Structures are given as C-alpha cells and as structure tokens.
Amino acid sequence: MQNIPEIENLIKLISKLPGLGPKSAKRIILKMINNRQELLKPLAQNLSIVFKNIVRCKICGTLKSNTIECSYNNCEIVEKKYNKICVVENISDQWAIESSSIFQGYFHILGGTLSNNNNSNREDLLINSLIERINKDDIEEVILATSATVEGQTTAFYIQDSLKKIDVKVSKLAQGLPVGGEIENLDDGTLISAFKNRKKIEA
Predict the structure, then answer these.
(1) What is the separation of C-alpha 78 from the centre of its chain, rounded to a whole number of angstroms?
(2) Nearest to 100, CA basis, from 196, 172, 179
(3) pLDDT tens digits, 128-154
(4) Which residues, including other chains, have CB under 8 Å from residue 30's CB and lie 6 or more apart?
(5) Distance from C-alpha of 38 to C-alpha of 33, rounded to nearest angstrom
(6) Which CATH architecture has domain 84-200?
C-alpha cells in the first residue's frame, strides 16, 4: 500500500474484524477506494451514523437507536406478550437462536459473562434489569442459554442464585450443547435439540 499512513491504519483496523486478516483487509480497501462514490463515501457516512446513534438498550441489552424507544420484542413496545425469557451472553447468540425459529419469547442479552471481563459486574450484565422484567412481565420461565464454557456456566449459576426468591421456573439448555461450546457457533439442529430437551434447574 506504498506506506500511506491513512491506508496502513485502515488495514490494521479492518484486520481486527472477525475472519479478516491483512490480505483480506487490503482487498476490501482497494475495492472501496476504486469505488469511492458507490462504496467508500456511503460506508463512511453510515459508520458515522451508527457510531452516533446505535447504543445498547439498558433494559434488555439489545441494540437500539438512541433516537427511538427500544422497539424489539424485548422491552416496552411489543405486539405480543410472552411468558418466557431467554438469557444469552451476546447479541450474536440471540441472532443464532432466532434463526433456528425454536424459541418464541423475550430475549435478555447480558453483554458478556461474569468472568471474561474484568469490568463485568451485576450492573454491566443487566441482572437487576432481568429481575425487574421477570416481575413486571409475569414471566413463568427463564431459559439460561449461556455457553457451555466455564465463564458461561459460572454466570448461569449466579443468575440462578439471584432468582431463588422469585417464583419462576429456571431451566437451562440440555443435550446437544457440547462442553465448551458457544451458542453463536452451533448449528440449528443442535440448538433445537438443546432447547427441546432443556431441564429445569432445581433450587
């Protein structure tokens, strides 16, 4: 890239994206530069808009525009009421479960686990918000769909312990979920099996 600082910096940034390395980053950048008006300019404009407007909902944890209320089937504005809520670590986990069409209900996105981020705590993971939603929306079942990693299971146990005083069924994904597996990397068949065979967690 002829040691052009602006391009070198862009290569470093794009290389940090999942599945992309320096070679892929260079190809992407060349494509954008060769199509400045069709690709580069609108991409830059849209990235700026996303940076300014897209935030994490403080109630359910999903992504939302800060210009409107959360309109997802998670918070205030919903077309249908549900009695189940599925707790996942990340939005990518939510998308994976949605694509399988196995679950109909609310989602609660933690935004991580208790152990994988030094800054993570009860407030960061919206656990207080989860308890409030369970009480407010008359939730009958909480499905813990955290990963089968040590961090995911630690977080699930903490949430289970936090819900002991609430009259709600707490279950977790069962067979089909491999040890150490992360939700977003599972195929639809595995997710469907894990949901169908979920087990109630006894206090």
Answers:
(1) 19
(2) 196
(3) 899 999 998 889 999 999 887 888 888
(4) none
(5) 10
(6) 3-Layer(aba) Sandwich (3.40)
Write down the pLDDT at residue 153: 84
Q: How far is CA 130 from the centre of its chain?
A: 15
Give the residue extent of every domain in the chain. Answer: 5-56, 84-200
Whether the CB-CB separation of 182 and 95 falls below 8 Å is answered with no
What topology is assigned to 5-56 in CATH? Helicase, Ruva Protein; domain 3 (1.10.8)
Indicate left, alpha or beta for 85 from its phi (over 0: left) and psi (-120 to 50: alpha): beta
Kindly compute the dihedral angle of the four CA atoms of residues 59, 144, 116, 64, in this order, to the nearest 10 degrees: -30
pLDDT mean over 83-92: 92
Strand partners, 84: 141
Contact 113, 120 (CB under 8 A): yes
